[in-house]
Sequence to fold (608 residues):
Amino acid sequence: MCGIVGYVGLHQAADVLLQGLSKLEYRGYDSAGIAVHQNGILTVKTKGRLADLKEKIEKTDTCLFGKIGIGHTRWATHGAPSDVNSHPHSSENGRISVVHNGIIENYMQLKEMLEQKGRKFVSETDTEIVAQLFDDCYNGDMVETMINVISQIRGAYALGVLCSEHPDQIVAVRKDSPLLVGLSEKENYIASDIPALLEYTRDYYLLEDNEIVLLKQDGVTLFDLNKNEIKKEVFHVTWDVSAAEKDGYDYFMMKEIVEQPEGLRKTIFPRLCDNGIQLDHISLTEEFVKNINRIHIVACGSAWHAAIVGKYVIEKISRIPVEVDLASEFRYRDPILNKNDLCIIVSQSGETADTLAALREAKKHGVRVLSIVNVVGSSIARESDDVLYTWAGPEIAVATTKGYSTQLSVMYLLAVYFGKAKQEISLQEQNQYITDLKKVPEDVKSLLELEERIKVLAKQYAQSKDVFVIGRGIDHAAAMEASLKLKEISYIHSEAYAAGELKHGTISLIEDGTLVVAIATQQTLFEKLVSNIKEVKARGANVVAITPRGNEAIEKVADEVFYIPEGNELFSASSTVVPMQLLAYYIAVERGCDVDKPRNLAKSVTVE
Ligand code: M6R
Fold:
């Protein structure tokens, strides 16, 4: 949901800003812009992608030589993508320039107040209000003005502000939207996310809400809302720059699909020890686990799909009741929470606005929060009582793959850990689960070999109007993720259905040639699933089945079968998702879609 960069240093700011934005386009890509201070503020912005912005700079022969500036890549909320709605936004007199990620909720009242003072607005955005308000409050001191501004605005924001009267300063702040500060010798930066700055620095300040940053070439000062200086620890990033590069793949999504076995190994193996499962430094004692009344798993999108798989696996192995909620629902539904409950928050980015709000809701009720997060040091990780990281490495493609599959693996680890702590499983059973878990990365790796067959299938179904994915139990949860992958990157309408539910209405949509993917890994439900396949076949569907080896009987009813390795069926979602990720990918490629940046989406949803 919008990417922000700011730079002050020794080099041409425009180059650094454009380079930084190129790593943030995953956050939004419907318009882009930069503002550079060079004898006043010069702004270039445009509807479209970063490439369009670069072209505009070249075509208009805009000479950008300033060494301080701010940049933005947008995912539209207020006002359609257009040149005028693009960021940076300026005050009417051009003194102030602002980039913003988030939503200013009281922008209408503020706009009215500023209009009454005679200020004219040119865009439909909430951000222009911040630029005008900043100018209205401006007292010559950037930090004091920022404190005044944020006392008047409501909502979520990461803001970077440039002022024509301060050619050496950027002032920035965050509240409920991510922002960090990059630190270097005689050069300093702000950005929404680490990959934007990784080629310049590995040292960062991870900002908390309402911390104000004054960025200058020779230093960074942090202030609280009373303008007291604050000290902060430097966060040092150890990952490799190449982790956030495409490495010769056409799209990040394919690179990230291929990286899944490695991410799974890094997430699972260090947590296995002689006695069973050791969950990093988290402080859930056996005593606590024994007394858990109920687990609430809360997430959005694919992380929510991982949560549903988690419910099946945790309930089955540990017999602890689990409720799963969409974060956007949980936060407003006045959930019944008990002090002996545990809330598990799942998020790849660790910044999803609804998920963060759900975490705060749980904490408000005194419930212990354990989060499963990929981005180290993200807001959700920092605000949780305990964190289990998914070591997938940076995920750039908007459609998650390795993020989701590593989340699943943490669910499995937790289920076995809880099961053993509650003595629902014996030592022997625990050891068998661990043996099965160790096999997961290899199984996923072997499924990548299906690529060539799936390419052929993708050609055949690339022009489908509708695709249905059916399954029962865990397979239904896996079907939801499979269906989301397909629709978000290929724009084909797709629905996931609990196979037994089809005949209660949806089966009327099945026509000659409709593609139905049937996931059948749960042995006790296998025959029932076969009956469901026959029902859709009888109405003309083409059925592709995904099932473990040993279930060759399915070839009698399905048109095409993809086999996954035999293994513990509780962990099957890790395998069944792989052919579906590949199918979605190749259908999207076949249809000429921009796989990494699907229309209307953004990687990190930092607005409600
Ligand atoms: O960063 P998060 O895991 O909190 O993100 C949640 C969803 O926005 C995310 O999973 C989204 O559904 C993906 N585009 C799915 O591929």
Remarks:
- The CA atoms of residues 18 and 54 lie 8 Å apart.
- DSSP finds 18 helices and 27 strands in the chain.
- The pocket of 5-amino-5-deoxy-1-O-phosphono-D-mannitol is lined by residues 300-303, 347-349, 352, 355, 398-400, 484, 488, 604-605 (CB under 6 Å).
